[in-house]
Design a protein that fits this description.
The chain is built from three helices and ten strands. Strand 2 and strand 3 form a beta hairpin.
Amino acid sequence: FARVLLLGENEPQMAKYLPKVAGSEAVGCYALSDTECGSDVANMGSLLYVMDGGAYVLNGAKTFVTNAPFADYAVAFARNKDDDRKYKNITAFIVPAAKKNGGNGFVPEKPMDKLCWRGSETSIISLQDVRLSEDDVVGGREDGFKLAVTSLSYGRLAVAAEALGLMERVLDEVISFASGRRGVGGKLSDS
C-alpha cells in the first residue's frame, strides 16, 4: 500500500494516508493479483472500472490480498472496461474498506487457509459499484501498469532478501543439529 503511494508521488495522498499506516492507526492492503491471471498485470480483467460522469465505478474482484480482512484501505488495480489497450488501460485506486458489512461495496471474503505465512490474513476481495473520484487515483489515470511492476520489483527484492536470511538460519540449525547428534557408528558430523 505505502510503496505504491510513494511511487505515485501525490503529496495530498501521502499526507493523508502514510502517517496513519506508519503509525499503526490504519492498515493498508495491496490488491493486484487477478482472479483470472494472477500477477500478469498486462492481462488483468477481474476488476474493471467504467466512467460515470466524473466518477470511476469499480466492479469485480482481486485475489491473494494480504491484510484484506482487516484493512482500512486498499490500493486496487483496475482495467478500464471500455479500453482494450494493454499496459495503458490500468489505473491504481485508493479504495476505502468498510470493515463491517462492506458498506461501500468493498467486501473481503473468508480468509484463505494457508500452509505458511500465517502471520497475516489473506483473502479475495469483491468490489461492487464502488464509486471513486479523481482524488482516489494513485499517480495518474493509466499509470497503474507502471506502478504495479515497479512496486512488484521492490517487493520481490525484499522477499529474496528474506528468503536468503531464512535459509542462512536453517543452515545454521542443521549444522548445529548434525554436530551434536549421534548416529550409527558415531557423530553425524565432525564440524
